[in-house]
Here is the input.
Amino acid sequence: MNLANLFSNINPREVIKNLPDAVFVIDSDGKIIWVNDKAAIIFEARVGDLKGLYFNEIVAGGLELCEKSYSRRNSVVTGAFTLEGKEFFIEMNAKKYIDQYFVTIRDITAMTNVLANAEKTGRLNKEKNIMLVKLANEFKSPLQSIIGFSQALSDGLGGEINDKQSKYVKIINKNSAELLYFMDKFLEFAQAESSLFGLESKPFDITNTVQTVIKANESEINSKGLTINYDFEELKKKSLCTDEHCLKIALQNVIETAIKMTDVGSVTIKIDNLDLESIADYGCKPVKNSQEDSYIRISISDTGMGLSKNELDGIFEPYTQLDKTNKKIVLRSIILGTAQTIIRRMGGNITVSSEVMKGTEFVIVMPDSKSE
Here is the structure.
């Protein structure tokens, strides 16, 4: 069939009538001269009831928004009203032909409600985190007292106790210490997510920072007989300008995770600079005025048992792990989730790769703030 003949048989008004969006034709005074059936459905009225009305009667600032949409060549979002006065939200586009506006309208009330609820939820989450951080001492002080007094009883400072009592006191002390550790890590995660989290960039020696974190974990490293290997040979400069305290928290959480997952062997920490072409591979965007030494890469690899694919899923996302029965998995995701949140706030990212029986590697990539 000849295409010209095909299109000559198409009735433009019939096409407009069956468009999925509401369609209005409005004259230069803002009077509605034609609508399609979809418009009647959205505005909960009959077609005949809408014709002859002024567009401003059913769309707030309707005629002015038509001109705005037409002149700027984009859609506008505004409020609209049914003839019964029920308010809803619309997205409208307007085109102008001689002295008439051709307007398409879509009801976006449901989408607007979703966005409003998401904003409200996000605000409530931030307020919840702030509350948890500010109440940290209220949570921790009773536990610290239980740990202190139970240890004193165990050491005989409260008088002699029999073997059965000693066993119970040690259980109280151990479980209280574990609960305090969990609370510390949970509150740390809440603070990283909250608006109380702030960054203060100052230059420091990144190699000294890493070694300080390792020293803080010496007790567990020595108890397991692990070897710590350092590889800083490819690092172009030791000085890094960012928030050292925040980086220490992230490093501590990743390094202590590596140590916990390794019973025999070693943990190796390598620091080098990342070439600009590889930044995107780690989920980062180059900072302004980036140079070849603008990004550092900190690799923390261990010779532990490694993690399966199921264990890697959601490893940085505590909220996705809440249905897990293994509390160690939940705690690990809180610890690593804190590290991930902090590093992302610093403009970087953390990735992980692992193979069962061959170990795990965490890679922290982050910018030097002097490059921004």
Observations:
- The chain has three domains: 3-107, 118-193, 202-371.
